[in-house]
Amino acid sequence: MGIRQDVLLAGFLLSDGGITARGKESWTIYFRNKDKSVIEEFQKTLIEACGKRGYITKRSDETLFIRLHSTKLANRLFSFSKSYRTKACNTFPVCRHLRGKRSSCKIYGTQKIDGIEYPKAEIPKQVFKNKKLAREFLKIYASCDGGISVVPARNKRGSLFLVRKVLISVKHPIMSEQLTKLLLNLGFSPVRYKDQIRLIKREDIQKFKEEIGFIKDAKVSNNSKYLSGYEKNKILDMVIDSYRNPQELLNFLLKIRFSNRLSRD
User: Fold this and answer.
1) Domains defined along the chain, listed by start
2) Entry pTM
């Protein structure tokens, strides 16, 4: 057990998990994801942090859901971030404090950003002090709430080319600023969009592969129309290789699109 494990656990919870009130004093730590490899890595980190692996159930949407009741662990995690809810308080499902119920927002307060109320979620300060920890944290966050994207497009002359990017989704404005700063500190050139941070330069994508990458065997989610189910690291490798030989990846993507059209017909 140690600060490192707690900080990495915070990375999982800030992306695809959270901490919710249980009764008058206790807390429940939870995490949900469809990817078995990501779930296993979360449980490994959870065991290292508190010696427990949590109770796992499978939801009707195929999501694997892990929960653990632990006030002691929750209080440790709240020392890194006062909330693990990362969307606006009035976004569905609305924050519990707006319904008069016990929650981290009710206890630690909220913050107004451009007139919108947000929980006090933030990236643990420790990741800004240790580059190795920062890379580990980003690997987790990008594996849960990010990925690799590559799509064929046509220029004005009708020629095919590839649009490549590593992306990280984030809805919380403060966390978006912090994740951008973290990437800048590591030597990347991130570009911020609404609810998303992107690495689009060849050298940034190459650097991401060499220094961060994704959790081993983590798969592209169903949010991707064509690459769903493929290993993120494998697609990342193919993207890097495509800078030398774009036609091979273009053929791969066009083949997938053609197969998908046939399966729908």
Assistant:
1) 3-85 (3.10.28.10), 125-264 (3.10.28.10)
2) 0.93
